[in-house]
Amino acid sequence: MVQLSPPGALRAFTSGVLRSEGVPAPDADLLADTLVMAELWGHASHGMLRLPWYVARLRSGATQRVTRVTTVRDTGALLVLDGGHGIGQVITDQAVTHGVERAKAHGVSAVGIRNSGHFGTAAYFTRRAAEQGCIALLCTNASPAMAPWGGKQKSIGTNPWSIAAPAGKRGVLVMDLANTAVARGKVYLAAERGTPIPPGWAADAEGSPTTDPRAAIEGLIRPMAGPKGYVMSFMFDVLAGVLTGSAFGDEVAGPYQPTETSGAGHLLLTIDVAAMADPAEYAARVEALVDATRDAPKAPWATEILVPGELEDRNAELNSHGIDLAPATWTSLVTLAAESNVPLPPTKEAAPPTEQAALPIEEVAPPSTEDVPA
Amino acid sequence: MVQLSPPGALRAFTSGVLRSEGVPAPDADLLADTLVMAELWGHASHGMLRLPWYVARLRSGATQRVTRVTTVRDTGALLVLDGGHGIGQVITDQAVTHGVERAKAHGVSAVGIRNSGHFGTAAYFTRRAAEQGCIALLCTNASPAMAPWGGKQKSIGTNPWSIAAPAGKRGVLVMDLANTAVARGKVYLAAERGTPIPPGWAADAEGSPTTDPRAAIEGLIRPMAGPKGYVMSFMFDVLAGVLTGSAFGDEVAGPYQPTETSGAGHLLLTIDVAAMADPAEYAARVEALVDATRDAPKAPWATEILVPGELEDRNAELNSHGIDLAPATWTSLVTLAAESNVPLPPTKEAAPPTEQAALPIEEVAPPSTEDVPA
Hints:
Two copies of one chain form a homodimer. By secondary structure, chain A is an alpha+beta fold.
């Protein structure tokens, strides 16, 4: 049975659970908002299914309940922050505040973040910078998910990265992607839903192809676009892990590991649009690019062309009446409610799910990676 | 017949041809070096085959013979340069000089470049920054090569980008890739060599799959990794074209177009490693990542694991005795020699080409994008 929960109530429930674990109210609200926003955008892989993981980490002490960020280096335009193994989302949110402030002062800023944790969707944070008139690039390293090109043992993360930019009247443009053929979270979601994964996404622990998401979790996720995904992930580990003084390579622990310190590092680069361009001129130019792209002639298999981030904005609108939760996710929330004494959010049985609302951009339309558009 | 030419002589010839076209000696030397380095790295697609294109553009006035770069904005850490439609490589080389200098002063810098031209391989420039202790990200827009996801008409470039980082005793780490299933230059090289292209690289002008490189040049290159390549290219156009005040979308002209102003824009982000980390600690950490990656257990199909940029370094060593030129490329150099009165570089007939030396990293090994490593 699919459960629909109103976003506001789900946010309040999530924050309540986190507060009951000793997370300060503003931090609990923030983490709850990141999870619910992921659901609204149609990325359930980064949504509520992670709440029990985060709670387990808080209980074990792998993640500090109270996040205390310290400044390690500060040149004005460049900062290094130490997250003290607190909540990744809280640490990264502070980094964005600094990054935007420093970019407004210097034109550009770099914030390195060490000893952080998994921060959920990178787009949550780059969008915040874009809403304040900045272009932001945020990258992170992550727990080992794939082998280097030519290897058979996982030692390199999916290492997601996001770029967001203001888009004038069109809102915000944002891309957010993992350098793997698929985000690990989608494999977890398939495992949780008990559905097979498409061929080509992953190999099992022996390196053989598999469509079993549980075997894939024990095995290898493949890099996107062959070795290109490998070199991208490698370089983002240099930026997010090596450079910032955080864990790197196979030292980073995943959010699904309840007892190990994460060690994830991030790098945020922020440019103040107003330092590089007249904001009105920039807005007119970016709007022209968006409009020309949307209005381009369509392939026979497509009815419309979307710009980066548009699908998520549209999904958020569609899902604003209620969020569709997988049965296993709902069961975990029932358990958390009982443990924390926080009342469950209201639900109702869902209408048949609309495909549109559940599809991230990389799955929105044919053709597959190997088919040429006709 | 394959021609082998010593790199030094090829460089001198190329510079001589460019000087005869009115390009100042230092600029001619630089452009010649970028073309010969691309050959040495094994990327003939960005090598000598482009010399006649550049000469045609200089003769038509589409590219200014004498490059004059002006500063449009300057906040200290952030600059906007106008290349005045000069030589892209000369403009970008100056941008790197500024970018490194400003990063050393502020920790991080951003240089936006407008009214530039195609700059060849992005890695040539990011490597220069890395050799000076900086991490650099350089992106560019380019002439339309692919359709937006869901479209059937090309309006978005391959928009290549590169990240390079110092790697201590291991030299420099560098990635450089186009957001297409394949670099356009590889299609041009196949057309020049008269060989078919693999299925999946491109579609013809009607949107149908093709293995004919000439049909592909008139048609569509596909994005890498499906819609991911589209969103990446789109965002890099926002950064390199829209933000910098250069041409964007379908306004950018390609280097193979002899009479049209390029309008290409670039964005360079540079971080001084020493501002973010102790350089000795950083070096030890990056060396550890490189060593652990190289020493990882190998897949059955691989004999070794390379780190980003290593193949190009190795190719440069292998090719240092002589560069293998395609017959059509050699013919174009014979013509340029006659026109410019610059003596041709010496050649000899090549030994059978070593596969290793000609393979860029994305082609170095099985499995294909759709095969899962065994």
